[in-house]
């Protein structure tokens, strides 16, 4: 790191250190994610045909907003409908970038590479969100390029509800989906691969998904529901194996619909009365994937309020915490529902949901749908996050089955006045340093500290201890943080 960069880092660190306030401590480890939907330009880019400069500026503003709110993970939809918001060798450029599918941005750049770089600059993780089976969002009006797979391999697709879907029953479709994941895991510095609830499409009353011919060919004596579930099981296992073979540090997560099964359908199910479920309608057996260790984390979309008559948030929160099987559980929260009914007009609804989730040691964070909602600060919830729930930063929870080795602790070199230089000399790569405050009369353990600052750095950083105010009587420590968020032993600074 040259002197100019080190000087800039010193300035950034000094400006970024927050006053340690007398408030309820927040977890040092907590997944704080935001979904950034690109389909139909829901979140980013805000509309088609923005210039490259406008696209980049929008994403940077979005990142700055979420960083201010305390987030640490961006989950960005990079494959909304058999297309790509990156330079893919297999699928055309998305219409949501340029207005016409297959038309690259001009001047040419790779939005995914840009977004990853900008996200990592802020110490955040980047998870690439893929829709596995949606191919044409709207048959009547979506832009479809001549080289889109619906044109080059029309036999791979089925029409249902005004959309085109990859046929999950075809082995070649599953192989293609895995090929997309392999390409992303090979070429990009991703922290995660993420899929949401759209496996088989949600049922439309009176319309059967038209895969009878394929069932007759591939069903092998299973009933149709079991065969459909086996198709989803197969692609999840294949993706898991591909990621582990290419880059085992990339996490694989699923965000399912909030109800696995109702208790009326299965004694293991939740005490809910959902009209559709993962297992019976979307053919996604999430519990099997968790039990087998095929996925690393699950984010059930609990988009109902507390006390909902058919799907109570509290009931579902408890149920998922009892069925996580040693993998990580984050809760999908519906900031977009602000103002939609009496419960969601209350400024307490979302904060209470965050607090309820934190009461379970098996819940390790939350993800919010979706980014655009934050621009309006609904019910003052941005303020609640900034001033209370996410006032202090958090590291993404490490996954011991991926990496459980701690990096070397930082060395400290005293500088002029009250400045100290942190130096990392370990062999393992790190993403930076964490600064921790230990309250008076507390045993010096990581679990007893409060993380107050995460510094993005590869080898060294300079901190002005005089800028850390409001810590009278407290001790200040530093740790190295590796790429999987494991922390080193603590080094005392003050």
Fraction of residues in H or I helices: 25-40%
Number of helices: 15
Largest sheet: 8 strands, parallel, barrel
Give me the CATH superfamily of the largest domain.
Answer: Glycosidases
- What fraction of the residues are assigned to beta strands by DSSP? 15-25%
Biggest sheet strand line-up: 1-2-3-7-8-9-10-11
Number of strands: 18
Average of the residue pLDDT scores: 94
Poorly predicted runs = 1-24
Q: What global shape is seen? A: globular
Would you kindly provide a written description of the structure presented here, covering whatever features stand out?
- The protein has helices spanning 3-16, 52-68, 95-98, 111-121, 149-152, 171-187, 212-218, 224-246, 278-282, 286-292, 313-321, 342-345, 349-358, 371-374, 381-389, and strands at residues 31-36, 73-79, 125-130, 134-136, 157-160, 163-166, 192-195, 251-254, 297-298, 328-333, 363-368, 411-414, 419-423, 430-438, 450-456, 460-464, 475-482, 491-492.
- By secondary structure, the chain is an alpha/beta fold.
- It has two domains: 30-389, Alpha-Beta Barrel (TIM Barrel), CATH 3.20.20.80; 411-492, Sandwich (Immunoglobulin-like), CATH 2.60.40.
- Helix 2 (52-68) packs parallel to helix 4 (111-121) and helix 6 runs parallel beside helix 8.
- The chain starts with a helix and ends with a strand.
- Residues 1-24 have low confidence and may be disordered.
Labels describing this entry:
alpha/beta, TIM Barrel, Immunoglobulin-like, 2 domains, 8-stranded parallel barrel, 4-stranded antiparallel β-sheet, 18 strands, 19% strand
């Amino acid at each position: 790191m040259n002197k100019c960069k080190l000087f800039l880092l010193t300035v950034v660190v000094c400006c970024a250190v927050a006053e340690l306030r007398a408030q309820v401590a927040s977890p040092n480890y907590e997944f704080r994610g935001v979904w950034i939907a690109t389909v139909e330009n829901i979140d980013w880019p805000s509309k088609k045909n923005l210039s490259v400069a406008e696209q980049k500026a929008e994403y940077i503003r979005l990142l700055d907003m979420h960083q201010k709110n305390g987030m640490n993970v961006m989950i960005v939809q990079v494959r909304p409908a058999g297309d790509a918001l990156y330079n893919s060798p297999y699928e055309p450029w998305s219409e949501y970038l340029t207005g016409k599918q297959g038309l690259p941005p001009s001047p040419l750049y790779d939005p995914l590479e840009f977004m990853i770089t900008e996200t990592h600059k802020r110490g955040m993780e980047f998870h690439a969100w893929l829709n596995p089976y949606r191919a044409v969002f709207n048959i009547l009006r979506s832009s479809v390029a001549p080289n889109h797979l619906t044109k080059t391999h029309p036999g791979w697709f089925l029409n249902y509800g005004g959309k085109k879907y990859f046929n999950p029953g075809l082995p070649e479709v599953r192989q293609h989906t895995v090929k997309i994941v392999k390409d992303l895991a090979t070429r990009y510095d991703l922290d995660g691969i993420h899929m949401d609830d759209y496996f088989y499409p949600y049922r439309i009353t009176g319309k059967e998904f038209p895969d009878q011919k394929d069932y007759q060919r591939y069903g092998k004596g299973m009933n149709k529901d079991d065969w459909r579930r086996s198709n989803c099981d197969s692609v999840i296992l294949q993706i898991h194996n591909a990621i582990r073979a290419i880059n085992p540090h990339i996490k694989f997560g699923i965000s399912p619909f909030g109800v696995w099964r109702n208790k009326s359908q299965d004694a293991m199910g939740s005490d809910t009365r959902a009209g559709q479920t993962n297992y019976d309608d979307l053919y996604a057996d999430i519990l099997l994937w968790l039990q087998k260790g095929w996925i690393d984390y699950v984010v059930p979309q609990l988009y109902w309020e507390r006390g909902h008559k058919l799907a109570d948030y509290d009931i579902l929160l408890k149920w998922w915490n009892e069925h996580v099987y040693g993998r990580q559980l984050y809760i999908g929260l519906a900031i977009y529902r602000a103002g939609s009914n009496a419960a969601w007009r209350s400024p307490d609804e979302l904060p209470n949901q965050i607090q309820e989730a934190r009461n379970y040691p098996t819940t390790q964070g939350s993800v919010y749908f979706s980014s655009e909602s934050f621009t309006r600060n609904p019910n003052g919830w941005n303020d609640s996050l900034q001033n209370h729930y996410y006032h202090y930063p958090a590291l993404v929870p490490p996954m011991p089955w991926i990496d459980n080795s701690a990096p070397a602790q930082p060395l400290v070199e005293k500088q002029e006045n009250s400045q100290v230089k942190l130096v990392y000399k370990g062999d393992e790569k790190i993403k930076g340093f964490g600064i921790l405050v230990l309250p008076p009369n507390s045993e010096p353990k990581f679990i007893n500290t409060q993380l107050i600052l995460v510094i993005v750095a590869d080898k060294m950083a300079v901190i002005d201890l005089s800028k850390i105010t409001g810590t009278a009587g407290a001790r200040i420590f530093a740790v190295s943080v590796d790429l999987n968020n494991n922390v080193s032993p603590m080094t005392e600074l003050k």
